[in-house]
Amino acid sequence: MATDSFRLTITEARELLRKRELSAVELTRACLDRIDAVEPLLNSFITVCADEALAQAREADRRLAKGGAPPLCGIPLAIKDIYATRGVRTTCASKILENFVPTYDATVIARLRAEGAVFVGKANLDEFAMGSSTENSAFGPTRNPYDTQRVAGGSSGGSAAAVAADQCLGSLGTDTGGSIREPASFCGVVGIKPTYSRVSRFGIVAYASSLDQVGPFGKTVRDCAIMLRSLAGADPADSTCSTRPVPDYEAALSGEVKGMRIGVPKEFFVEGMQADVENAVRAAIAHYQSAGARVVEVSLPHTQYAVAAYYLIATAEASANLERYDGIRYGVRVEADNLLDLYRKTRARGFGAEVKRRIMLGTFALSTGYYDAYYLKAQKVRTLIKRDFDQAFACCDLIATPTAPTTAFRLGEKMSDPLQMYLSDIFTISVNLAGLPGLALPCGYDAEGMPIGLQLIGPAFGEEIILRAGDAYERSGVLTRKPAVV
Amino acid sequence: MATEKTNKINLDQVRHIALLARLELTADEEQRMLGDLEQMLEYVDKLNELDTAAVEPTAQVGDIGAAMRDDVVATCDDPQSILANAPDAREQMFKVPKIIE
Amino acid sequence: MSASSEKYEAVIGLEVHAQLLTRSKIFCGCSTEFGAPPNTHVCPVCCGMPGVLPVFNRRVLELAIRMGLAAHCTIAPRSIFDRKNYFYPDLPKGYQISQYETPLCKGGYIELPGDGDNGGPTRIRLVRIHLEEDAGKNIHAPDCSLVDFNRSGVPLTEIVSEPDIRTPEQAGAYLRELRSMLRYLEVSDGNMEEGSFRCDANVSVRPRGSDSLGVKTEVKNMNSFRHVEHAIAYEIERQIELLEAGERVVQETRLWDPDRGVTRPMRSKEYAHDYRYFPEPDLPPLIVPPDLVEQIRIAMPELPAARRARYTSEMGLTPYEANVLTQEREIADYFEAVLPGLKNRKAAANWVMTEVLRVVNESGRGVAQSVPAPAEVGSLLKMVEDGAISLNAAKTAFAAMCKSGKNAKATVSELGLLQVSDEAAIAAACDEVICAEPAKVAEYRGGRDKLFGFFVGQVMKAMGGKANPKIINEVLRRKLAAS
Predict the structure, then answer these.
(1) Which pick of A343, C4, C170, C412 has the fewest CB atoms within 10 Å?
(2) In a domain, A137, yes or no
């Protein structure tokens, strides 16, 4: 058992840890060994924290021995390297922060620490979470555990791959336009982006503040429910964080979908999407119908404008959020004899091509003479997109769509065409614009064996219903999970 | 690749934006940036298909209240640590090239 | 004023940054205390470390509303914060959190005291009062610059006037009034040396009678009211000279150089400035609870303008006196605490304006630390009113009280300052003098009125200088008249 305990789900490991049939140290060692074994193939991590993890595991074992330990005590997790972790280098996959060691923890990291969770390492990502493939990492791309010639998705590609390849039991990502759901879909794992404001953003390095949201990856929906409960809730250090009480998400997993109204938006089944993807998603919807759910057609007419609105809003916010990387207080600096050159050279050296592209677009969208035409216009379209969802949720309880139009693409395939890369988030982006919760879970495999993701979108603070629907699908056994080849 | 003849943005604007953003671009990068921005601006033009004259902008979503903090001093436990990551410091201050006002 | 300056009129608008009197910063818990060693009142939030978020200090809202109400502004029930983007070493995030399209307070005005000659008070309209965070401080060493973030995140209000100001003196009066209000309200300490009250001026000139605006310059780096007046006066003259010479005023930012007494353009190359304001996504909208404004309104202290009006209309003080007494709330409060039991308010006003203010100003300390309690000064003045002591004796007693801290009665008796008002004793002394100087009495009675002073002096001398001069006068007149 102990040797391949890295294959356990959190739900399973929690039981074994509580019964002391497995120690946190054994489990952590198993994951660290697994990381050693497969990391050369995948590059899921920027930093592996073996010593710290084992120390945390030993402490967790002491707590577990006393009994009554919290749910994530002793559970090895990977953390996207965009969460500030006290004393552990936090790079955001950027050269500009390659040596940055925070003196503070993100709120959710502090919460997980307090629960006794074990952090095995900091997972790879697209630089500053800007990308859909984890190819924009200053530390090299993460490869897909189902086919190492393909991308893991992004931006939280390392977090998704690490869970898919059993390098950890669960992980944390962030989702600004699909950065949890798309890699979950590509790597055949479960990921949830909660409602905007459900989880504190303090200590999460900002990409686009009005869109960024923290969320977990797990091997199962239940694992995500367990993690989300530990993450969510008010934070005095984040005044945009909701003070609503946090439900027991696990308790919501009744397995029952009877009477649920599942909306299917016609705009999400578009020309050019991969046939296997459409078929698998339609089959999943049909399964819900056979399990007693009602399928209703809904319309989200402004979906086709979401990518355009997103790339103006997100890049505008990003252009400001990234101004603090100036080589003065932390991070890489290129010395110069005057201030202007210090700024320009430091930022030219420190940022990668995609980050520069987005800073430029965002700066332009906010600049004098263009603000109304671009930034303000995009904010107005955001209103229309949000309104679409409000109207749709008047006649359904949740919405089911594909997570991405295709399965994982090949490394390098979209690197020369930024717009094509952006369009891989076409089904996830509108959910961020509207601030809604979205769950991605595997619903099949394409002809080449690559995972396909189903996306379940809930109304604001409707995490329970999408988790219940996702869990019910998983439990039904219609999908036999195909393990990653790595 | 786009050329300087494109209509959404020109090379001078690219340079101006790069200055505002404090990014030093090589001549090659300027050209590539011009092409990329042109492509994106062409793409986002589709927003103009929508009449938004009567639509209010949305800047924030979610359950955002009016949280505020009380006026209480929280002393930083270790002020030295603020300079721990500084590329260059002197006398407990961050050092930069001489600023000319 | 030169002949050419007669042809022109200046148009001046002022932007004042006042630090709000909070304990902690606007978006984090760091102390706002002045004068700490560099980078000791700092944390990840006010140093713009990655991933941190601002949380708004509710006290800032209360203080700013207080100022807004005092300046007759409209308080926005909902306003938002914006990011103002520019790169500078003292600006840790690369943007300043400020308010742009929706300031907390809009409109309103400041009423300047009338000077008595030009008639009534003058109104300077306000554009807005908004909230923002201060930047850190760049310290310039010979070979480099060094950055201290202790100030970064200190709460400020920016008070922006309409270009209603016409002269440097009026600009000074506006600033004094604003500072006085802020101090009355306990919104800001208004300390210019410590940077908690700063002013930039937008100055342009135009031909007198024109209603279009000339090209303006923005003048910065003025660290006292006098500097502001001098800098504006210089700038007006400079612009007029340019226009008279057929040249154009260039729109630019200029720095006041107090040593040379000139303004000069900022040397830094004008990088393209484009602040790219947009709504701050990290902060919720600033919602003013409906009852908060009313609570603050009810608790508002009486402001300098209202006090001035009361002092002139109810007490009969001149506008000048009212203005001097009301500039500092501490002084006005002191003055009013001197008054109970006194009939002569004008005398009390004079006393506070001369004796009390002189000691306070010389000591460089607060009122409470430098002069006796107002009730003691009241009782001293009451003794003067009652004729128990002379005005000179009161001054002597006051000086002694300032040093010793003893009360008025004890001091007066210790120093033997009580004057004799016993009419019988004075009459006896008068009789003695009249008997001793028969020749002078005869001269006086013969019409040499001037000799009256001589008799008063002799009587006073006989009584050891402590007789009530008023009574001496009465008795002597009577006795010298009778033959």
Answers:
(1) C4
(2) yes
Domain extent at residue A469: 2-259+438-476
* A336 interface with B at CB cutoff 8 Å: yes
List, as ranges, residues 245-284 from C with C-beta within 8 Å of B: 255, 266-268, 271-272, 274, 276, 279, 281, 284
CA-based nearest distance A274→chain B, Å: 22
Range C362-392 burial, b when 16+ CB lie within 10 A, else e:
eeeeebeeebbbbebbbbbbbbbeeebbbee
Q: A269 vs B18, which has greater pLDDT?
A: B18
Q: Which residues of B touch C (CB under 8 A)?
A: 16, 19-20, 22, 59-60, 64-76, 79, 82-83, 90-101
Interface of A with C in 346-365 (CB under 8 A): 363
How far apart CA A174 and CA A214 sit, in angstroms, is: 4
Ordered structural domains, chain B, with CATH: 11-48 (1.10.20)
Q: Which other chains touch chain C, taking contact as 3+ CB pairs less than 8 Å apart?
A: A, B
C153 touches chain A (CB under 8 A): no
Q: How many residues does chain A have?
A: 486
For chain C, which residues make up each domain, given as ranges?
3-295, 328-414, 423-481
Angstroms from C49 CA to nearest CA on chain A: 8
First to last CA, chain B: 41
Q: How far is CA B20 from CA A190, B9, B91, C90, C369, in A?
A: 41, 15, 31, 17, 53
Residue B71 contacts residue C58 (beta carbons within 8 Å): yes
User: C163 to each of A82, C197, C203, C204, how far by Cα in Å?
Assistant: 48, 20, 9, 9
The predicted-structure confidence for C305-321, as pLDDT tens digits, reads as follows: 999 999 999 999 999 99
Compute how many other C-beta atoms are within 10 angstroms of the C-beta atom of residue C289: 12
B23 and A CB contact within 8 Å:
yes
Q: Do C276 and A371 touch (CB under 8 A)?
A: yes
Mean residue pLDDT of chain C comes to: 92
- The overall average pLDDT reported for chain A is 96
Report the domain count for chain A: 1
The DSSP call for residue C274 is: -
Classify the C-alpha dihedral A134-A135-A139-A144 as positive or negative: positive
DSSP A345-383: HHHHHHS-HHHHHHHHHHHHHHSTTTIIIIIIHHHHHHH
pLDDT tens readout for residues B6-60? 589 999 999 999 999 999 999 999 999 999 999 999 999 999 999 999 999 999 9
User: What average pLDDT score do residues A432-457 get?
Assistant: 98
Closest-CA distance, A309 to chain C, in angstroms, reads 16
Q: Work out the number of other CB atoms within 10 angstroms of the CB of residue C291.
A: 8
A434/B50 touch (CB, cutoff 8 Å), yes or no: no
Would you state the pLDDT for residue C1? 47
Q: What does chain C come to in residues?
A: 483
CATH class of residue range C423-481:
mainly alpha
Entry field: residues in chain B: 101
Q: Is C29 on the interface with B (CB under 8 A)?
A: yes
Report the amino acid identity of residue C258: P
Q: How far is CA C294 from the centre of its chain?
A: 27
Smallest CA-to-CA distance from A217 within A130, A138, A153 is with A153
- The answer for C 252-311 residues in CB contact with A (under 8 A) is 269, 271, 274, 276-278, 281-284
Residue A232: which CATH number?
Answer: 3.90.1300.10
pLDDT tens track for A400-411:
999 999 999 999
3-state secondary structure of C269: coil
Q: Which residues of C touch A319 (CB under 8 A)?
A: 85, 276
The complex's ipTM?
0.96
